[in-house]
Fold ArsR/SmtB family transcription factor.
Amino acid sequence: MGEQKPNDDSTRFSSQQPSCCRDAAHSLTEQELAADIQTLAAIGNETRYEALRLIAAADDGACGCELEPALGVSQGAVSQALSRLYAAGLVTRRKDGRWRYYSATSRAERLLNVLDETRTTTDD
């Protein structure tokens, strides 16, 4: 028997990139990527996202106790949501007596504005 020729599939999937492909790259550091992922994960939950919207809409910050009835979830769920938003740098908190008030950071405000713009803008 003669030598078998490789079928077309073996040459089609070579390890060399086609001439049209470039190496994919971005300008973000690993730390910046991690921060972005943490931010997106923080608002990737309905309770946390709605809490952030309520906090951003409050003129002088929102008390954690105001969020529980507005969100319709337990105090523990509100507390956990606020902790995640705070850890992601999307809210600040200040204590006034026994109450804790939360305010949206400028980063959170910009992020919410971009989301608002993309919801109202149509792609051409």
The longest strand covers residues 91-96. The chain has a mean pLDDT of 86. Residues 29-120 form a domain with the Arc Repressor Mutant, subunit A fold (CATH 1.10.10.10).
